[in-house]
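User: What would this chain look like folded?
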Amino acid sequence: MEDPNTHDNVDSEKISESFLCCVCLELLYKPVVLSCGHISCFWCVHKSMDTLHESHCPICRHPYNHFPTICQMLHLLLLKEYPIAYKRRENQILEEEKEMGIFSPQFNSQAYNHGGNPASLSTMGFESKSPSDSLSTRKGEPYANLELLNSDSQVQDDGVCALIEIRSGNSEVIGNVSLKENTSKQVLVSDVLCLACKQLLFHPVVLNCGHVYCESCIIIPAGEMLKCQVCQTLHPRGFPKVCLELDHYLEENFPKEYVRRRDAVQLKQVVIECSTESCKQGKNLPRLTVPHPNAHFGVGCDSCGIVPIIGDRYRCKDCVEKIGFDLCGDCYNTCSKLPGRFNQQHTTEHKFELIRGFRKWISTSCLAR
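Assistant: Here's the prediction, encoded as structure tokens.
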């Protein structure tokens, strides 16, 4: 049974309207940042995407066809800023996921970086685990260059929260974690650093892979596509726009540091230009008003996030999860792959099978007759 005091604690956390999802109107949970810079919850974006044609941002109607990875930095920033409300959202979403039989990626909030120090919010890793496990978690298998980290408990952080133990699909409250003083002050400058310049983010942009950079730190070599410096994945179609909600948060919470960063960037007179063909294409995406003849309707790529997959589709034969694990042809043929979008327990030992597009399958069947 839910503690009646929880509602009072949640109400005491004054949640900024900037961090309310435009779809469900609740606190953002596992936030996804679209290429236009607007933020929504992971499941809100997934459910609102068009599986036949291009999708559109619910706020500005900007077109897109890639389902972005969760922004881990924002996820953990919200967890620190609103620990009670965020844990409540976690429990709420977990119950919904158990009903669907599909689970979003899990994260390790106690991760450490390569230097042995607690990692900042901008470098946290995925945690591959099954929600059916109890408080102990299974160590995930790395599928690509991204290291999968494991944690000691399913829900564990500095905020007040109920520890939930999963037993045969049922949740049971088994304890509480005490709240440290000055919770709202827990987010530090070191938690919101650019992955390139290692300074406070200024005009932050979030790539399709979920990593965050200063707008001025994004460099695209002539004739090439934008590539993340951390995971080496390509950012599809063009230059991402500044995430204004995050930018306003940084300006409000770190005013002195923000002014110094702004002055430094202006002094360098950094000019961002889309010089590559991919950037130019990103300004005017081709409208997919007619379904592509080789589209796999309702199926997205678990690496780059394109929905639907067009052309060759590779389906994992060994993943038993309800939603499965699929890759588009480009991602299957490259070595830079992120973990599954839906917490699939995929490993490098798993085998794939080639699935043809619907219309291509019909054409082949007709020729065979």
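Residues 83-100 form the longest helix (18 residues). If you want, I can go into more detail on any region.
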